[in-house]
Amino acid sequence: MTINLARYGVGPENSRGRRYAEPPPTHRSEFQRDRDRVIHSGAFRRLEYKTQVFVNHEGDLYRTRLTHSLEVAQIARTVARAIRLNEDLTEAISLAHDLGHTPFGHAGQDALNDCMRDYGGFEHNLQSLRVVDSLEQRYAAFPGLNLTYETREGILKHCSLANARRLGQLGQRFIDRQQPSLEAQLANLADEIAYNNHDVDDGLRSGLIELDDLLTIPLVADQLASVRSRYSATNARVEIHEVVRGMIGALVGDLIITSEARIEELAPQSLDDIRRHAGPLIGFSEPFAEAQRALKRFLGDHLYRHPKVKSMTERAKEIVAALFSVYIGDYGRMPTEHADSARAAHDEQGPAAGARVVADYIAGMTDRFAMQACDDLQPGR
Ligand code: MG
Prior knowledge:
By secondary structure, the chain is an all-alpha fold.
């Protein structure tokens, strides 16, 4: 159990519980149980072979969705402990937040969304929720992982209004424009800190971006100056690690101080005060928020749209589109289990339900599985 939890944090007394009632755990908190169920899921293990930015086979040292999720959890836990939020809950959300990602990162998700245009679209956030609510089948008593409302709320970061209306209680906050728990707000920002910094690190390692180009961003320039003033002769690789380490430390430090001050100012008495507040309370001061935006812009212009990354993403889109068009034309091209559920869904609820089973199957693939599946469909390619 979290010690000294702030009264506006999520605890067992203000949790909205699980969809299927279960006896409370004996030696763990409810949120530790959520975390453990996420770690034991098949979707979590598959994150090891899913792209963050660089396709998995390009090198062993780049981040994958698994190592990304671990970094998010580590950052979120540090902040949660410092400001007395529920560390177990923020960890569970962090580890689960990317479970619904397709192979090939955002390129894969965009391609699948295009393919699903006539069948309700594809949103990776919503897919993460589908994974924990129904696609993981490991327990005899219920479908999915039966996670607590609060972990599910944290997983569903964004959602279109149309989908929010279909989700009932969980979607209601998007309609009412309410906030999620502080633990969910925190996991969201820990995600941003993690990916901006590790994409800088991976981008520099790959040689696709240069440290000198990044010096237009004051946060990077400040950290480099600080490293150079303390260590006169360091090799370039260590210098990069020190800069990235310093940036994460500075962002985390600012997030703690700024969030604490905002919480103190509002003086929330309960979790409901947090939910009803006009905006999120977990956040950066303006200079650090701008530093994050500048990093994101830089990475967008120089890394994500780099010709080498783009040619990889184009290929990824072709693979996803090819798989979708074959499976949607003939469910029988998928393994029996998926083919049978697509046919049943189609017969009972129509073509969109059949397409959803195809999308679930493709979204669950790892990068290498998708490439192999595509090669198998089109011999000689
Ligand atoms: Mg993420």
